[in-house]
Amino acid sequence: MAGATGATGATGATGATGVTGATGPSSSPPLIAAAVVNSNGTFIGNPRGFSAVSQVGTGQYNVTLTTPPGDTNQNLVELTVAGFVGGQISWLITFPGTINVFTFDAAGVAANKIFSILVYDMT
Questions:
Q1: N or C end: fewer C-beta atoms under 10 angstroms in the chain?
Q2: Residue (of 101, 112, 107) closest to 39 by Cα position
Q3: Percent of the chain having pLDDT more than 90?
């Protein structure tokens, strides 16, 4: 027959800290350009990574990257129409570094709109 269990002993000293692991990948791709474009085809404030913008028609804008990445198929373009009235927006890369932006009102009719544009390099 075994005897009763004894009292718990004192806690031992804390061990040495282990080696720090390697840094993992970033949670977001690198931002290469950002701007806010006025409805008249001019930049509002100071754009980052864009060299020019022009309005080429009602709701049509060309935005030019300062230094386009080698493979424009690896760009992620994020656009947002400003304001409380609503609207729609789409884009297309036509030349390396030129992004055509198309803005529409809530009914889908071409309309001049203020918008923001962000471009990320997914390579």
A1: N
A2: 112
A3: 55
